[in-house]
Structure prediction request, 149 residues.
Amino acid sequence: MPDVFEYRHVVTLEETNQLGNVYFAHFLRWQGHCRELFLRRTAPEVLDSLDHEHALVTVRAACDYLDELVAFDEVTLRMRVGEVVQNRMTLLFEYWRTSGAEALMARGEQQVAWLRRTPSGFEPLPVPQTLLRAIDAYLAEPVRTGWRN
Prediction:
């Protein structure tokens, strides 16, 4: 079983709607927080390389909601790395309520791409080698395909 990267969060009132449950868009925002903290911990050089020339772009995000979260629920996002192909990496998320009885609340997925800004638009860059080394323990599947530096 691959390692998981965990991001812990306590739901605040501002993240709930008038019915008292978490507004759906916050689940996607938490994916971004988890991804960025993962990069900060495992491959800070990748974050340092993001500048006016290089970009990390979310090209797809999804979430399947299984149950509701409410204010002050403690939720842990558990992230693994799915497929890595050419300039893209798919991240897999599970949202677990960890206050009270632990329960799976949602599953999500996000695909990110590494790009270079050019005068005519973006061009793909291979997933950085430092990140490829850092994600080995988090790979859901043992096979990676595509560009290698």
Notes: Confidence is low (pLDDT under 50) at residues 142-149. The first helix runs from residue 25 to 42. DSSP finds three helices and six strands in the chain. The first strand starts at residue 5 and ends at 10.
